[in-house]
Write a structure and sequence with these properties.
This protein has 316 residues and is mostly helical. The protein has one domain. It has helices spanning 2-20, 28-47, 62-78, 85-110, 117-141, 152-180, 187-209, 211-235, 242-269, 278-315. The longest helix has 38 residues, at 278-315. It is globular, with a radius of gyration of 19 Å. The two termini are 25 Å apart.
Amino acid sequence: MIRNAIAGGILWFGLAIASRLHGAPLTIIELLFLLGPLVVIPLGLALCDGPPRRAGISLFGGGLRWFQLAAALSATASFWLPRGIVSAAFAAPWLGFGCVVGIRGLLNLFDGGFKSLKSACMAVSFLYLPIGCTWLVASRLGLNPLGFQEPIVLLTAVHFHFAGFAAPLLALSGLTALEQRMIAPSRVYKSVTAGVLAGPALLAAGFVIGPRVKLAAALVVACSEIGLSLCFLSQIRYLKPRAAQTFISVSALSVLFAMILVGGWAIGEFPLQPFLHLDEMARFHGTANALGFVLCGLVGWNFVGRYSRHQKGASQ
């Protein structure tokens, strides 16, 4: 999956440059979304140390690695087409891949996925992904599910790829680091992780139920991710190699800025007098959250994982 992430990262960087030079018909929200299939998802899956095979399904087999890359490229191509059946057909393989990941999450639940925080993080992360993929297909079809219009439809897909899929895996990585030091997670870390797991679903429900629930859920997301970043900073000095410390520090500091914006946006939405509009949220919060918190966090924790595996192999 790391190779997929590298290839996807090169493509995404090219798309970002082309968009900046008006050579690609992509908005900032579309670019942020594409970072998910091309880079974030393969990096997130690389953090999971090969879950056991069940029912012939393995997220890390060669065939599914190729499927992930092909589906991500197909989803990218869908943004060059006008919304409709053909565009949705190009996005559909990504939904298929998301469903495979979601099945793995269901299998984790059947195996007692909530008996430990680590297994719960993986199960919930995997179950959020097909939800985000479904909203992508709805966006490319031009649908308005539950009465929501663009850019909310695509932003919902972004939400479940980043806050839904990636954030629980970042929490999982922190738990793994504590486990390697033979330290049990504190009550604070457990509470923060619970917020990370529940927050995306609560925020999505808030958009349907009403502004009070949306405000409360947004604050849960903001507080839990800020808490997670502070937990990461408390572990920085124990992490190896040095590159991991740098990336995870950037991740932790980025989420502080990004989640302050979430809190401001949510408070402004409650009296229907927003302090920040969606385009500003996409530009500032979206960039800080996607590139800073999620991308740098995943890169940093992958460095930690590779270093730990190398040290373990060298000692055997």
